[in-house]
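Progress note, project year one: complex with pyridoxal-5'-phosphate.
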Amino acid sequence: MDTLKDLRHLFPVTQRYVYLNHASTGPLPTPAVEAMISFIAQREGREEAGLESWDERVAKVRGLVARLIHATVEEIAFVGSTSHGLNIVAAGLDWQAGDNVVCAETEFPANVYPWLNLRRKGVEVRFAQERQGRIPLEAIAEQMDDRTRMVALSFVEFFTGYRNDLAAVSGLCRQNGALLCVDGIQGLGALPLDVNECGVDFLAAQAPKWLLGPIGIGFLYCRRQRLPELDLAMGGWRGVVEHEEFFRYDSGWFPNARRFEVGSLNYLGVTGMGASLQLLLDAGIERIEARILALTDYLLARLKADGYDIITPHACRGERSGIISFVPKEDPETLTERLKAAGIIVSARGPYIRVSPHFYNTEAEIERLIEAVR
Ligand SMILES: Cc1ncc(COP(=O)(O)O)c(C=O)c1O
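Model obtained:
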């Protein structure tokens, strides 16, 4: 098995930038680019269509997604974005006026609007209060009552990098008869997640951040037991078993999550995401997590030594992720522009600078950032 260091050459971005912005958009690694170029060449007629038919490739990538989150292929549907996946869930459940959904105050809006859209059905959306960058279990519990049908939360919060304890949240959900729906985009690819161990009912994520995949492709996980509870808000020809028997019209929906795939898939996106997933899974998600936490340990120590206020909760490793946000000593927008001119890419998020390294980054790159922000 390659050491993680040996994989750095698969990231041409490292030749141009100190790229520390995976919470915004991850760069495509070479294998993903090559796989997509080959697909485009086939589509243009320059290359023979590979032996592997498109649908076989889709099946293989579905398997990789399932492996990533410890689900089964029956529980995975391809979607275009996190929002797309979350909306399939929001639109599919049988809501009653007076039901409520508990979100968190500092959630990225992708996991808020699908629930706000239910207000027209009389569903109330409540917000658990963030405390010092964390969303404490008690804050979620305070918002729950016997009409709470869903808790909708991120695996990792995009602003602070706080890693929610999904197993504890799902325990709370079970006690109260609620379901747990997770936006996985800021954690998957960087941190391990077992949807069974964590009691997740639904999860959606798009590929282009930590999963290092293309834009416009992602997946929805729907726990097997929940499939019968989710009505099809949209029905389409690719969602039925015998979709090549064009004039049947009575073919049944797939008994699995494929029923949510209404039309032809984004094969180019699936191809690129598949190559990136293969790279991540071969590298080992646990090893990737350990490397990211070592890099962010280093970053935290250097920031602290220079007296910065760090807003990312970091009392223990279990609440950390690949995101570290801190208060810079100058205007964040001006600083990110200045850093960009020096070839260092991070994000300004409100009053903070958000730094988000992946496994192929180095301590030397963190050092360059530290020198440049001074
Ligand atoms: C937590 C979180 N969820 C979702 C998204 C994106 O949502 P979508 O995949 O629907 O574009 C982002 C960032 O762009 C994010 O930070």
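The chain has two domains: 4-20+284-373, 41-282.
The chain has a mean pLDDT of 96.
No further modelling is planned for this target in the current period.
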